[in-house]
Amino acid sequence: MENIKEQKERQERIRELTQVLIDFLSESIVDEELPVVDAIFVFGHYDSRPAIQAAKLWKMGKAPKVIISGKGRDKIPSGFETEADFYASLIQKEGVPMSALILEKQSTNTLENVRFGVSEASDLHPTSFILCALPPLLRRSIATFKKQFPHVSVCGSAFEMSTDEFLAPVRLQRIISEFERLHDYAQKGDIVSVEITDSVQNALEELKKLLS
């Protein structure tokens, strides 16, 4: 059985490895360096922070339109029919007018978010997007766009999250499963192949061992 010191050292190592994985998954550019694009594309969720980030970027003048994509499947906040409706409410409260919003309310996964969201905004003929999502989902979101719409330029925008948010066992497994999704979805043809560096792969394997 581990003593208290060993437990603390193990937890600290888990935190360090988790940070390496999150840094890799959160493919993004700092707000001030983001280009001006045709639209900000936000992936629906019950976590309010991607919506707040999208509103922040709109107010910075990074794009004239915000596309909100997502029907959702569960955990949609009470009083809203879809994730898109929930996010639209949040974004408007941040000072973005409804006239700047485009809502897509049918998608239930990332691939549909991308396909249906771009279709909903087809009148704009967009060629560039800034993507807003939970930070650890940004690399897969970008990879999906690159596969489905290779002619469109995309970059990610991440809000600040603490690594401590991911240290619960279920959250750690979610981070590990994101790497499995990168592999599986590339095999299916949903996303472009994502190269995982040796240092990140080593961190992933070490984390798995520590959690087993």
UniProtKB/TrEMBL annotation:
Database matches in Gene3D superfamilies: HUPs (3.40.50.620)
Pfam families per the UniProt record, alphabetical: DUF218 (PF02698)
Record GO cellular component, one term: plasma membrane
Domain DUF218: 38-152
Protein name as annotated: DUF218 domain-containing protein
